[in-house]
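To whoever picks this up:

The nightly regression suite flagged RidA family protein as changed. Nothing in the input moved, so I suspect the structure step. Input below, exactly as stored in the fixture:
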Amino acid sequence: MTVINPTGLKQQSYYNHAKIRQGTPVFPTGQVSWDENGAVVGAGDIDAQVAQTYKNIGLMLAGLGATPDDIVKTVTYVTDPGFAPAIHRGRLKFFDGVELPASTFIHVAGLADADLLLEIDLVVMIPDKV
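Regenerated output under the current build:
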């Protein structure tokens, strides 16, 4: 696995510009703060929604036989750009101990459910089994 942060590009502590990993690419459904019954966890509470969304990402990774280190790219959709600090805190906690993926942050007018505040889309590289 390699991360790339070219000189001349803005450097951040919460993403890398590129993360390269060998394997099979998987493009899962974007994850939100729904529980297993489809109810929004943390309506109106960005910290609760970030925690549930990353919990769901962890469950999805486990189902793929993958880990957070296998995520090479995230796209985070938010209904309020002021949520960035809460999202960065949750992101750093989830990716603690591994190289951060590349990241894009997009402000949107709304998501699939009016109570959802964020959605995180991923690109995961499943390591090839030898």
